[in-house]
Amino acid sequence: MLQIRNAADILKGGGLVAFPTETVYGLGADALRPEAAKKIYAAKGRPSDNPLIIHIAEFEALFRIVKEIPPQARLLADAFWPGPLTMIFQKSEIVPYETTGGLDTVAVRMPDHPAALALIRESGGYIAAPSANTSGRPSPTLAEHVAEDLDGRIPLILDGGAVGIGIESTIIDLSCMSKTADGEWIADEIPLVLRPGYITREMLAEVIGTVGDDPGLADENAHPKAPGMKYRHYAPKAEMIIVSGEREDVIRRINELAEENCQRGEKTGVICTEETKEQYRADFIRSTGSRSDEGSIARHLYAVLREMDTLGADRIYSENFSALRIGNAVMNRLLKAAGHHVVEV
C-alpha cells in the first residue's frame, strides 16, 4: 500500500507512473491536468492527436467527466465493468483537450486490477493512461517491458507481474447517443466498435442490440476517434509480414521465405502456435500459445514481438489468427504491427 501511496503522490504532483491493468501496463497521469497529459505524449513520443483513455474506479465518476450518460452505458458497465471495455462519450468541460487529443469526446474505462483501482482512488479518481511503451512499440505485458522503453523517463513503475489478458481494451463509441428535449434517447447511428478486444462485438450486441465496426478500423489515414486507430502500432523493429491461407500452404510458404532470407544472410523469425511450431524451419520460431486456448495467444503476443527484437530477427513472418473468437482483436494488432503487409497463399 505504501507504493500505491507513493505513486498517487507522484500523480497528484503532475508526474507520471506506470501501473498494471488486466490488459497491458498503462502510463498514467492526472487526466484533468493539461500539463500532465502533455508529459505522457512526451515520454512516449506519442502524437498529441492520439486520444488518451481516462481510467476510473466507480461508475459514478462518469458524471463529472461526460456530458450525458446514455442508458446503454449503464447496461454495458453492469455487464463488463470492471473489465477490458472502453466507452466513448461527449466530454464535459472539465476534461482538457490535451487528454482527448483535441476531440470533444472522451474515452473512459474501469480496469479490472486491484492495484490499478487502488491507485485511481488514492490519486483522485481520474487517471489518463495509454499503454506504457514507446509509441509504436509492442505494448508492455510485464513491468520489465515498461523499463525497456521508459526507464529514466518516468519516476516509478508499479510491478504487478504478468497481465491477465495481454491486448488492449475493446472500444465502443456511444457518443452517437443524444437526449431530446423530451428526455428520450436517440441515436444518430448505431454504436460502433473503434478498437476490437477481448470483449467482442457479438458480446456487446447481446447487451445493447445492434453494434457495428467503425470503417476507420480499415483506414490507416482516418482521423483517430480512439487510441490505436492511426499510426503504426505494436511494431517490432524488423519488417513483419502476415501469411494467410490454409495451414499447410502457410507453413510451406513461410519456410520458403525463410530459406530465401537465409541465402541472403538474413535471420528469420516465425510467429506461430503450439500446433504448428515443429513444422517450421527458421532461425527463431516462437509460439504465442495454443489455438485451443485463445487467451494464451493474446496474452503472449506482445512479449513474442518484443523477443524478436531481442533475438535480432531481420524479417518476421506470422500466421493468420482470424479464425479465433478473439481473432479480430489479435489480427487488428498484428496488421498494425506489420503495416498491413499480408501475403495470401
CATH first level of the largest domain: which class?
Alpha Beta
Rg from Cα: 20 Å
CATH topology of the largest domain: DHBP synthase
Structural class: alpha/beta
Q: Which of globular, elongated, flat, extended, rod-shaped describes the shape?
A: globular
Individual helix count = 11
Task: List low-pLDDT spans.
Answer: none
Spatial order of the strands in the main sheet?
A: 7-1-2-6-3-5-4-8-11-12
- Overall pLDDT metric: 93
Can you characterise this structure?
The protein folds into 2 domains: 2-218, DHBP synthase, CATH 3.90.870.10; 239-344, Rossmann fold (3-Layer(aba) Sandwich), CATH 3.40.50.11030. The protein is 32% helix and 19% strand. It contains 11 helices and 17 strands. It has helices at residues 2-12, 34-44, 62-65, 71-80, 97-100, 114-123, 143-150, 201-208, 247-263, 294-311, 327-337; strands at residues 17-19, 26-30, 53-55, 85-90, 105-109, 127-128, 156-157, 170-173, 177-179, 185-187, 192-195, 212-213, 239-244, 268-272, 284-287, 315-319, 342-344. Strand 9 and strand 10 form a beta hairpin. The radius of gyration is 20 Å and the shape is globular. The model has no long low-confidence stretch (mean pLDDT 93).
Provide key terms for this protein:
17 strands; alpha/beta; five-stranded parallel beta sheet; Rossmann fold; 345 residues
Short description:
32% of the residues lie in helices and 19% in strands. With 345 residues, the protein is α/β, with parallel strands linked by helices. 49% of the residues are buried.
How does the SSE layout of this entry go?
Elements: H1 2-12, E1 17-19, E2 26-30, H2 34-44, E3 53-55, H3 62-65, H4 71-80, E4 85-90, H5 97-100, E5 105-109, H6 114-123, E6 127-128, H7 143-150, E7 156-157, E8 170-173, E9 177-179, E10 185-187, E11 192-195, H8 201-208, E12 212-213, E13 239-244, H9 247-263, E14 268-272, E15 284-287, H10 294-311, E16 315-319, H11 327-337, E17 342-344
